[in-house]
Amino acid sequence: MPELPEVEATRQNLERWTRGATLTAVATDPPSDDLDAGVGQCFGPWQRQGKRLATSLGSATLLVQLGMTGRIVKDAPPDRPYQRVVLTVSTDGTTTRVSLIDLRRLGRVALVPTLVDAFAGLGADALTTQLDAATLRRQVCASRAPIKSALMDQALLSGLGNIAVLEACFRAQIHPLRPSSSLTDPELARLATAITAHLSHTLATTVGHEEITYVSEGGDNPFLVYGREDEACPTCAASIDRANQNHRIHRLLQGGRPVFWCPSCQPLTAHE
Question: According to the model, what pLDDT value does residue 243 have?
Answer without folding.
Answer: 56
